[in-house]
Specification:
205 residues; two-stranded antiparallel ribbon; Rossmann fold; 5 helices
Length: 205
């Protein structure tokens, strides 16, 4: 899991406070505008671990999304089967084995300025988990969605572990709603049912 968001090929971005009433509609509309015109297999990779409150944003989002049974999106990374730093390589290999030319949306938590806490940020391009910690992790995603869960700058592991669960749950539900809205707009004739892959069985970090 990354403590700070480091992005590759970021050509467009939208960011909104998660409590804004029109946030889900506006961010989902923006993301839909970035989707390819030809049919693709859509995969959401929710990165993080349930052993740190702030870092649980990804797994919580994956669990909330899976509960909605999306029709066109496969989900990797839930509270029960998290995708984190020690298994990310294996999961990315698994995704490319199971899906032909997947279009990947990565979801992760990040830390930021005080004024940014509570914002949900969606950007084109890949998320680079672990870049702030010099971890050799693969870039993930054609698009990424991050939630700023707390303040960066000092003792960031501790900051993540002491993040309020209420804001993390609220943001995870909003991100899941964004992804459900996107799934409802994917109307290709070939339906790809959502699947939470369980081939990798490891303890989360």
């Amino acid at each position: 899991m990354n403590l700070k968001s480091h992005f590759n090929s970021k050509s467009d971005t939208i960011r909104m406070l998660h409590t804004e009433p029109d946030m889900c509609g506006k961010i989902s509309e923006k993301i839909v505008s970035w989707l390819p015109n030809s049919p693709r297999e859509y995969v959401v990779v929710c990165i993080g671990t349930d052993r740190s409150t702030g870092d649980a944003l990804g797994p919580l989002t994956g669990s909330y999304l899976d509960e909605q049974k999306p029709r066109h999106i496969s989900v990797y990374g839930t509270l029960y089967d998290p995708v984190h730093a020690t298994n990310l390589h294996d999961y990315m290999n698994l995704i490319h084995q199971n899906h032909k030319n997947p279009f990947i949306i990565a979801v992760d938590a990040c830390l930021g300025k005080t004024s940014s806490v509570g914002h949900i940020i969606a950007s084109e391009g890949a998320l680079k988990p672990g870049a702030a910690l010099n971890k050799p992790l693969p870039a993930v995603g054609d698009i990424h969605v991050t939630g700023v869960v707390n303040i960066s700058g000092f003792m960031e592991y501790s900051v993540l572990q002491n993040t309020r669960l209420s804001i993390v749950i609220s943001m995870a539900k909003k991100i899941a709603s964004i992804l459900v809205t996107i799934d409802q707009q994917l109307t290709y004739n070939q339906i790809s049912p959502a699947v939470v892959m369980k081939q990798l069985k490891e303890n989360s970090i």
